[in-house]
Design goal:
heterodimer, A: mainly alpha, three-stranded antiparallel sheet, 3% strand, globular, B: alpha+beta, Immunoglobulin-like, four-stranded mixed sheet
């Protein structure tokens, strides 16, 4: 098979062994029923209880100099990705662009967001450039700029869903998605689109709803106890940021894209997929496509099918929950519970990409010294090497299973709390939870199955 | 109750069948079979294909043959447990540089002079063994996968 973007993954994970799979699945079931029995009878998480960080730290973190510094770092890194992608070596593993985008940015910002809050917003290069340009434009125009267009409500988070889908397609479908030059060009195109959209709808509005990476990392940051509110960094009850997620149109598809793309990345290594992919691919070659296009189309079908599967499964559970009564529409219920799927999406990402981040992430040490792969040694770290033994197979398995089980429990907790909040009848709330539980167990079982199938 | 049924069904569906295990060991057995035979690509040794598996005595040597830029018998897995001494011999009908990723060992191969890898498998995981000539030519460079399991 033609190497795909994951060609730069040097050490792949061993599949979790069958006994651990069995234990993990059993644990998920036990935990689920224990949770149903002991969880609180009144909603608790719907109020965030936000307070600023003490001693003015919260205000200092968002002060103008810190803001400008963070923005400048973001813009510098954006420039470095484009520059090294276009000018550097085209060997993916030796170029700063590939590892930085697929590992440090895409994976590394996930734990950073969960622990520290919405850090990407501070470093977001598009936001920084947009604000700088707006500031200059205001001075040039000697007055306020014309008001942006009203952001259509139906558009919601759809642009973000489309953006994350495009990113996943570049990473998982495109044959040369890890080629530094292609990453640089994709970055330039995405930047141009973002600037146009920010000019049309306003910088902050687009960052909040349309800019794919802002929306993506912001979703994970809602699990964090740290949140910036009205320009002050503060803390809140853990998990309480998620119930405040407004279910704008496109939010359910966005979560489906997030979970579906990880699912496909895992399933692409499973015998189920490696068995049928060549057949689909050869069919496309028979109708006259080149082998590379045929393979890309095959993988695109796999990616879309995975996303639709995840979306359909969630809708099915929601339809079930609707059938218990309460007078809600399917759309209202789908939106009401979608926030509880975020920890599951996190578990998918964490379990699937743990070793990629820990191992390939080390490469940033020598890539920082030699971003173009031309033999430079800016910081004297160009000769450092990746320690592939940093985490053993057994430890990897336990972490993976741990992420999945913890994600499951958090999801159940959030869904339970939401059910208590929206149903005025406690019995209906509990009955709707059987359906939500079925969704969660389904997603969690799929996650475990993928871990057991990886590279099998 | 509904949840229980769904949960159990999900569990049963998701649970990898026992066949998987059987397939795995069968595959391993096939691997050793192809390794012990002289697998000429031209089909001269066709008569021996059904030969008895006869597990080879230690030290086990994994042989990979490259003919005309492709691996004879397809991409195989070289299985090892952590701590094992692994021996891999790659023969090629053209000059090539063979790279074992992760362990980062490079060996040269040429007609009549196979690339020999001898090392202790001390990093767990799955690692690719690739041909750099194929890679430079824009072809699929994957020759085999080294699978190191916890001992």
């Amino acid at each position: 098979m033609i190497p795909l973007a994951h060609g730069f993954v040097v050490r792949s994970d061993l599949p979790i062994p069958e006994w651990l799979f069995g234990w993990a699945a059993a644990m998920v079931l036990v935990v689920s029923f224990v949770a149903l029995a002991i969880l609180w009878p009144d909603p608790r998480l719907q109020d965030e209880g936000w307070r600023p960080l003490p001693r003015g730290v919260g205000r200092w973190l968002t002060s103008r100099p810190v803001e400008i510094l963070c923005g400048a770092i973001g813009v510098f890194l954006l420039g470095l990705v484009v520059y090294s992608g276009l000018r550097g070596t085209q060997t993916a593993t030796a170029n700063f662009a590939t590892t930085f985008i697929y590992v440090i940015f895409w994976l590394g910002l996930v734990p950073a967001s969960v622990l520290l809050g919405d850090v990407f917003k501070a470093f977001n290069p598009w936001r920084a450039i947009g604000r700088a340009v707006a500031w200059i434009a205001r001075i040039a125009a000697r007055g306020p700029l014309p008001a942006p267009l009203a952001y259509p409500r139906w558009l919601g988070r759809w642009p973000a869903a489309a953006g994350i889908f495009a990113f996943a397609a570049l990473e998982l479908v495109a044959s040369n998605g890890d080629k530094p030059e292609n990453i640089a060009i994709a970055t330039l195109i995405y930047s141009a689109l973002t600037f146009v959209a920010m000019a049309l709808y306003g910088i902050e509005t687009w960052i909040e709803r349309g800019e794919a990476f802002s929306v993506y990392f912001n979703l994970f940051s809602r699990l964090s106890p740290i949140e910036t509110r009205d320009g002050v960094v503060g803390y809140r009850k853990p998990l309480s940021g998620l119930p405040a997620l407004e279910a704008l149109p496109g939010t359910v598809p966005l979560l489906a894209v997030m979970i579906g793309s990880v699912t496909f990345d895992g399933a692409a290594e499973a015998p189920l997929w490696t068995g049928i992919a060549p057949d689909i691919s050869s069919f496309f070659q028979d109708v006259g496509l080149t082998p590379q296009t045929a393979l890309e189309l095959t993988f695109l079908i796999g990616l879309v099918a995975s996303i639709l599967l995840v979306y359909g499964f969630y809708r099915l559970g929601v339809i079930g929950a609707r059938s218990v009564g309460g007078g809600f529409t399917t759309g209202r219920l789908a939106g009401a519970f979608i926030h509880s799927i975020v920890p599951i999406a996190l578990a998918y990402v964490a379990a699937h990409y743990l070793t990629l981040l820990l191992i390939q992430g080390q490469a940033i040490s020598f890539l920082a010294s030699d971003p173009l792969g031309d033999g430079a040694d800016l910081f004297g770290t160009a000769n450092t090497q990746i320690d592939y033994g940093v985490i053993g197979a057994t430890a990897t398995w336990y972490w993976q299973v741990g992420f999945v089980v913890v994600g499951h429990v958090i999801a159940l907790t959030l869904a339970h709390d939401r059910a208590l909040a929206i149903y005025d009848n406690a019995r209906l709330a509990v009955r709707s939870q059987y359906w939500m539980l079925a969704i969660m167990v389904g997603f969690t079982s799929l996650a475990l199955w993928l871990l057991s199938q990886a590279n099998a | 109750m509904v949840a229980l049924v769904v949960a159990v069904v999900a569990f049963v569906i998701a649970r990898p069948g026992d066949d998987d295990d059987g397939d795995g060991s069968q595959q391993a057995a096939q691997t050793t079979t192809t390794q012990t035979e002289t697998g000429t690509a031209d089909g001269a040794a066709e008569t021996q294909t059904e030969a008895e598996p006869a597990p080879p005595p230690k030290p086990e040597i994994s042989r990979i043959r490259v003919r005309g830029g492709t691996v004879v018998g397809g991409v195989e897995r070289v299985q090892a447990a952590k701590g094992d001494t692994v021996r891999i011999v790659v023969t090629s009908d053209a000059p090539d540089e063979i790279h074992l990723h992760g362990y980062d060992i490079y060996e040269n191969a040429a007609p009549g002079r196979p690339a020999r890898f001898v090392f202790r498998a001390d990093i767990e995981g799955i690692f690719e063994i690739e041909s750099h000539v194929a890679e430079d030519a824009g072809k699929d460079p994957l020759l085999a996968r080294l699978v190191v399991e916890p001992s």
